[in-house]
Amino acid sequence: xxxxxxxTGGSGTLGQAVIQLLHSYNFKVISVGxxxxxxxxxxxxxxxxxxxNETDLSRICTEIKQLDPIDCxxxxxxxxxxxxxxxxxxxxxxxxMQVNCIAHLLLLRALREQVRRVKPLRLVVPSSNVLDKTDxxxxxxxxxxxxxxxxxxxxxxxxxxTMSALILRLPxxxxxxxxxxxxxxxxxxQAVLVGYETPQLKxxxxxxxxxxxxxxxxxxxxxxxxx
Length: 227
Ligand SMILES: NC(=O)c1ccc[n+]([C@@H]2O[C@H](COP(=O)([O-])OP(=O)(O)OC[C@H]3O[C@@H](n4cnc5c(N)ncnc54)[C@H](OP(=O)(O)O)[C@@H]3O)[C@@H](O)[C@H]2O)c1
Prior knowledge:
CATH architecture: 3-Layer(aba) Sandwich
CATH topology: Rossmann fold
Oligomer: single chain
CATH class: Alpha Beta
Order of helices and strands: EHEEHEHEHHEEEHE
Number of helices: 6
CATH superfamily: NAD(P)-binding Rossmann-like Domain
Radius of gyration: 16 Å
Strand content: 15-25%
Helix content: 25-40%
Bound molecules: NADP nicotinamide-adenine-dinucleotide phosphate
């Protein structure tokens, strides 16, 4: 039977690699984000959504609830921020929280409200190893990521029979994230790189593959792995 997977950040470095992986296993991909993934696989549904726009988000959540239950989700969307305590800025914080955390929790709520079959939703959440090593300039980014991790943990605790989650705390992937929230503005750091491969990115993909294609019985309900 064809499985389906919802991917956020499918136009980004990690998201594109995840979509390729899912495509190689014949998943039907539902991508959510402002831009389409670069190479849209056949049968991929792209739902246009700016996570900073509440109207967009609520429309997309309604659409998701109406789709057939989705088997997997991989939450790759995110923005970086290099702000520490001295430069702490509530507007930057709100943007990072909205994209990195709140939008994903809303999507997860919509996925949870789909009529669930016996098998659980498998969720992969790329997080960051800044949570293990406390980089002083990552106050905003790290806080938004730990809030997301904790939110996912609470969802799973409420719903262990219908959801299992893998949090992957990734190291620097060898390519900067495209967008940076700094002093009131979003800065585009670079154009999106297509087909970029580093050992760290490859390892992340292997872990995601392992989790998504293994038997449900072997999967822990909630797991955090630092790479
Ligand atoms: N790169 C690294 O070294 C690194 C290290 C550790 C952890 N991570 C984590 O890994 C994940 C993927 O990182 P990456 O390097 O692939 O990032 P990336 O290339 O910058 O991609 C980020 C994605 O987020 C989406 N996004 C940004 N703002 C959005 C918004 N307002 N609404 C909807 N989507 C939005 C972008 O899509 P659109 O522009 O199309 O909307 C893009 O596809 C992130 O969660 C990041 O925190 C990355």
